[in-house]
Fold this sequence. Notes:
The protein is α+β, with helices and mostly antiparallel strands. The chain is built from twelve helices and eleven strands. It has a domain at 98-310: DD-peptidase/beta-lactamase superfamily (Beta-lactamase, 3-Layer(aba) Sandwich), CATH 3.40.710.
Amino acid sequence: MPRFRPALIVPLALAASAAASLAACSSQPDAPPPLDSKALGAVTKDAGAPTEDLARAVDTLFTDPELGETRAVLVMQGGKIAAERYAPGYDKDTRMISWSMAKTVTGVMIGMLVADGQLRLDQSPPIPRWQRPGDPRGEITLRQLLQMRSGLRHTEAGPVPYESSEVRMLFLDGRDNMAAYAESQPLEAEPGAKFEYSSNTTVILADIAARVLTGNSDDPETRRQAVAGFLRDRLFGPLGMTSMVPEFDAHGTLIGGSLIHGTARDWATFGEFLRHGGSWKGAQLVPRQWVTFMTSPSPREKNYGAQTWLNTTASQEDDPLHPISQPSGIFAAIGHMGQYIIVSPKQRLTVVRLGHSDEAERRVLLNRINDVVDLYPAR
């Protein structure tokens, strides 16, 4: 019998360990779990992106517990539905709240009135209390209101929610006449000098529309009917957005910064209308240059246009659209708790996500929405 030689044990052990390490390095990561019929069924045949990749990206928006509750996702590419999915209890006929996506609708309405010659961008708007001799708010222009740089003392959010201008206007002492509350606030900065995002400002814009359309009527029903009729006849009707329900306060002012209800399909239609530069089926509903104005950076905030968010600075982590920075030219209507209409003209793409996500969840949510956007090449 040959003599046992212990020295051979170490080299043999090292060889076995190296072989195991090599095997581990060469192994492929676990394949993602197969998609179920619900996930695959959300994607259409002509989606403009790989079916499984798009189905998985949309599925994650519904199944990832870190991004909150997704109720609806609709992806349109090249004017066609590429993917559409709803959470249990919601469907294509469910009206969902806009929150601040309504601001972009209000911005389009103002653009129509400017095009009609009833308002001018660089003039003081017809607000009686601002036109009194010596009132410094008479220096505020329509352009400055649209770009959220009026200089008015409006605080959108703060450490004590019920002290914010938005909450007080919507739910507390300003709720019956929201425009009067918003317009009565004093200046805290020179008009035009400072950007301050403000739902109160958009209610002022809605009040201006009511004044123009009614000849300064203070009758609530007259104001309500005039604005609702204008939106129906000039915007919602021509676009076929039959589900839209705008809300008004007790004074008949459109709550144009927060409260318009509509289906995911109608919100996607609105995004597509903006992607086409304000035209729809051959009709130019609002001048193309107005949409360009809405989607161009304001002088005081590069990621904001006129009642519309831009991805101009979305490479920065504090940007409301981060990380959706590519391609350039993406713009969005964004609402409280994770309502998004994201429009990318270079990709011929509109993505709608509606649901309920808090601030931390929205960080994850935007990364997952970006996964959808990344599936489409820019042209």
